[in-house]
What does this fold into?
Amino acid sequence: MQYKPLKDSLWQRIEFFIFQNDLGRPRTRDRECFETIRYVLITGIQWCNIPVLPEFVPKSTAHRRFQHWVNDGFFDRLLHWLKPDEIEALSLLHLDATVKVAKKGRPNQQSRKIQDKQNDRSRKSRRSAA
It folds into this structure.
């Protein structure tokens, strides 16, 4: 899926769900943080590979804000109150899974023979070194 910046009208609805805290130093603009987080979620890149662009914030800022918003319940509120077509425009809904079959029981005879040969070699090398 390709990343496209948000429309201003949609951002105004999203901005309503962000709690503002005026304590401490000035915050990075929420829209830039949100756009950076959307870019990571849409493209699937790692946080450390966020491109350095004027419309994006640094990776540490984006990740810290993402964690804060998750803990704060921002995304839950957002998905609960936005309309389905607005959620689709955000492109935030993704499913990612990795499935690996777990081996059951003891290893088969072939792998056991290989392990025995490796153990024999290491024993012989220890004896010759002594």
The chain is about 55% helix and 0% strand. The chain has a mean pLDDT of 76.
